[in-house]
Amino acid sequence: MEASAGLVAGSHNRNELVVIHGHEEHKPLKNLDGQVCEICGDEIGLTVEGDLFVACNECGFPVCRPCYEYERREGSQQCPQCKTRYKRLKGSPRVEGDEDEEDVDDIEHEFNIDDEQNKHRNIAESMLYGKMSYGRGPEDDESSQIPTGLAGIRSRPVSGEFPVGSSLAYGEHMSNSSLHKRVHPYPTSEPGSARWNERMDDWKMQQGNLGPENDDAYDPDMAMLDEARQPLSRKVPIASSKLNPYRMVIVARLVILAFFLRYRIMNPVHDAIGLWLTSVICEIWFAFSWILDQFPKWFPIDRETYLDRLSLRFEREGEPNMLASVDIFVSTVDPLKEPPLVTANTILSILAVDYPVDKISCYISDDGASMLTFEALSQTAEFARKWVPFCKKFAIEPRAPEMYFTLKVDYLKDKVQPTFVKERRAMKREYEEFKVRVNALVAKAQKVPLEGWIMQDGTPWPGNNTKDHPGMIQVFLGQSGGHDTEGNELPRLVYVSREKRPGFAHHKKAGAMNALVRVSGVLTNAPFMLNLDCDHYINNSKAVREAMCFLMDPQIGRKVCYVQFPQRFDGIDRHDRYANRNTVFFDINMKGLDGIQGPVYVGTGCVFRRQALYGYEPPKGPKRPKMVTCGCCPCFGRRRKDRKHSKDGGNANGPSLEDDKEFLMSNMNFEKKFGQSAIFVTSTLMEQGGVPPSSSPAALLKEAIHVISCGYEDKTEWGSELGWIYGSITEDILTGFKMHCRGWRSIYCMPKLPAFKGSAPINLSDRLNQVLRWALGSVEIFFSHHCPAWYGFKGGKLRWLERFAYVNTTIYPFTSLPLLAYCSLPAICLLTDKFIMPPISTFASLFFIALFLSIFATGILELRWSGVSIEEWWRNEQFWVIGGISAHLFAVIQGLLKVLAGIDTNFTVTSKTTDDEDFGELYAFKWTTLLIPPTTVLIFNLVGVVAGISDAINNGYQSWGPLFGKLFFSFWVIVHLYPFLKGLMGRQNRTPTIVVIWSVLLASIFSLLWVRIDPFVLKTKGPDTKMCGINC
């Protein structure tokens, strides 16, 4: 993949492919016909026999003889591509390590080995990571001493453990009990022989049990190896002193709730049966909703990672770096709502991440085909050449320049290099100049020319028509041409804009993400992928390493589909008026799910396993040995079931990853599943990632254009079984749900320094619109065939508490209906002088007191084990009411209209623009119909309070007692809506006129109509004899 090779635009369906070089000088692609050295660029040359010189007989990677000799003498002695150790070729001087090979001076005997050794070599060399490190005794230098089971395996001392997936490959020689243990391959000598006794004496001498004590018995290298073999992460259980009381209160609350509902049902209010029935229905729904929300939090856990062990295992000094590659996706649509400067900071933080540069590739999805985004990305790539080395030289955090330079901390803390201050000032000046250039591009883009945008070479911008344009790919930084000011290589940076044509379904963000999955699979094919929103920058430069501690862990990693990080936000006011931080969800609910089957996917800050997104199921564990049955009826029936089980395919729960691949290969179903791209289909079979070495950059770019064509997904499983799942505007919930249904588990990672930070819509209108979008997506899932209430039962791989959590994510918008009714009941009771409960006795009042105490106790104990502050908890409770009677209510209505009448609703992207004034956006008011229902409820309750107090004053002292219960519920509503009231007032403490008019009008009409009709109060026919007597 060539950097700066020009913008590649084309359409596979129209057989078009154009390379636009723009303002950059064209660099010819390398000649990959095998005649040029891939290290120095010189011709490879010939051997003395006249044949082409081949340095590596395993993969044939083109390297000239001088580079081969230098690599053997001074380098790692390994092939740059397949990492196989270079063998000594004829005429080459011996170097250290050649003694392990046979004493043969040429390569004429390289094929003189048996078939079994060839088999093991192919298996070992096909795995790029996780090789076995073998400790050697003092006499293990000769290859003839290696046991038969290990012959032919080129192991690299990387992990010190067997990869789980390779246990079957070595199964003929090693039992499963030897996994995760250090193996010393001693010679194949039998016990009792002289050789055996000598070995035993040496071993006892090393252990200090025989002979004099050896001062060199402690080997620091061996200690490091032992440390590297330890788990890369662990669960940190929450203290039982915090968790057990919490669970007991939950059980007690459940019992109290049952008695309370029983009392409410058995004691109706006869003179206001409608009010009573409405309140009881609402309370039953609230109880059901609480159960779905509460019980998935039964097993909360914390996790801890060990980054030093990750480095010891995969980043050993003098050896190739064995960390897995990661493709990072950033998606953007409208550069006027998602400012290019915000996106640029996200990209700069990615390029400066603390991870090997050759293992990181950043893909930018421009779904709006904007030339502004393209040019801003070009400026970002140039600035990255200066910013990235500065970050790595001084180890600064965070590595997004806007956030770093505005950080109000002592930036000299822990800085000891005398040049830091000077270079920081120079870098700040460079960044300010960069901001001016980007802002100039934004100002220029405000007015679109009539003829459309023209590139610097005079070529019309291919994306002038945002709804009808070819696919576009530009490699800004890559393996060649992607170097910083100090000459170091930079990560890859690739611009992607998928093809769009009228008449095709493009599926919004989910379709754009699937296009990035395919493009990255063709160009880099990293085994793991991180997706970020354009406004979520990397706040912790070691965030990717944190995720690798789970995904590359040989014990738990192979069954992990993704690692989800919590969302943290900048620019929110201290009081967090509208619960933008959402800490109750991220610090309580997600921890609870992590103890079951893993957290839900929340759309950003998530590292995926590519194979899980391809629809494969997790690898199966070792099979249990079959029971030897006796032949009685129950055993016979079970044996018949097992035979049928194996006949149907071996696993009733569905095929594993290897079974899926074998099935696809045998039935040639690749095109139906993945699409008609041979290169991409080949990449899907490479579990450890990587690109076939035979593919040229030009061919890869052409194929990348193919896989982002608008018709590529037709008649495939993309969006239904593969990648991001279509069918809802909240594609994140569906995507994670499908993975969990296949048996994968996810991990919740909460490092002390937040991994990612983003911007949140802090004003009331934008916040409600954001919540509306999420709620509508949940309603769409509820009415689809993917509804968690009935989907996924066949395999039985989704745990029940995990299903509870997913059901709760789809039905919570429907709580708006009983919540709106319940918030209106206090005002109705005050206006009609009725109540939803009959006069209660002292014993019955205990149910109410116990219920309220259990509610508060549950909340307090949750705060105790989670660390969430009581203010954050209270803000969450307030916004639950505000969002429930506004955004959630509209989501239910729009969802029903979409399902029943086919009326679709288009949503605009949430604005990420920032205000120059601190929290200036907090007070900005934007009209939306979402403001009308809560304003109406608020005014309605205020009117009810005034009417109730006035009535009590007129009727005397005896009417104050029943009034207190009604006022309590009415004040409960008003207090929860108080942040909403402040949002309406704005900075000038003045409610917008249109909101006041609509709300007062609706509240007045409803109040007058209610007093006139009085529908929930029991009517009596004829005169009331108690009031006027029998002669009335």
TrEMBL record:
Keywords assigned by UniProt, alphabetized: Acetylation, Cell membrane, Cell wall biogenesis/degradation, Cellulose biosynthesis, Glycosyltransferase, Manganese, Membrane, Metal-binding, Transferase, Transmembrane, Transmembrane helix, Zinc, Zinc-finger
GO-annotated molecular function: cellulose synthase (UDP-forming) activity; zinc ion binding
Binding site for Mn(2+): K509, D533
A GO term from the CC aspect: plasma membrane
Example of a GO biological process term: cell wall organization
Domain spans labelled RING-type: 37-83
Keyword Transmembrane helix part of the UniProt annotation: yes
Transmembrane segments: 243-261, 273-292, 811-831, 843-861, 881-901, 922-943, 963-981, 993-1013
Entry binding sites for UDP-alpha-D-glucose: S331, K337, E338, D367, K508
Pfam families: Cellulose_synt, zf-UDP
Cofactors (names): Mn(2+); Zn(2+)
Active site, UniProt feature: D367, D732
Family: Belongs to the glycosyltransferase 2 family. Plant cellulose synthase subfamily.
The name this protein goes by in its record: Cellulose synthase
